[in-house]
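Hi there,

I know you've been waiting on this one. I reran it after we fixed the sequence typo, so this is the corrected version. Both the input and the resulting structure follow.
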Amino acid sequence: MPISNTTRLLARLAATLPVIALGAQLSAQTPTSAFALQISPQGGGRCAQPTDRQAVQGKNLQMQDCNQSSVQLFTYDASNTRLMIGGLCVDAGDGQGGTLVTLSSCNGRSNQVWKVEQKPEFAKLVGINGLCLDIRYGSTSAGAPLQVWDCGDAEPNQLWKFLRQ
C-alpha cells in the first residue's frame, strides 16, 4: 500500500515534536535577551516588575500579573551574571536574609551577582551569600515584594521561568 503525502507529513511532524518541546523547555529555563521573570504556578504564576511600574534606581521588585509590558522585560548578562531591567541591576543590598531587592546602577559588586541554578522545569536565581531570589512570605498576591532568602529544595516562591517576549 503506498504511503500518502499526508502520512509522510504527519511522520515528519511527529519526528520534530520532541525537538520543539525540548526547545520550548530550554527557552523557559535559560535567560534570553529579553524575558519576563515568572514564578512557578504554585508560587502564584505572576511576573516580577519594579514597584510603581518604574524601572528607576532604588525601586523594589514586586509580583504582578504577567502582561508582556516593557516594565516586565529583564535581561541576563551571563558573562557578569547580572540580572537587569531598564539598564539597572537587581541588587540584594546587604545580602542578609529578608533584604528586599532593589534596582541599582550596576557596579560589579557581589550583591548584584545572580547565578542560574537549573531545576527540571524551572530555575533558581542564587545571589550573594547563597541566598535565593524569593517572594516574601511565600505570598501569591499581586504586589508581593521580592527579597533574598535561604534557598530551599523546592520552594515554589523561588522557582522561576524565563519567558521570551
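Quick highlight: The longest strand covers residues 35-39.

Best,
R. S.
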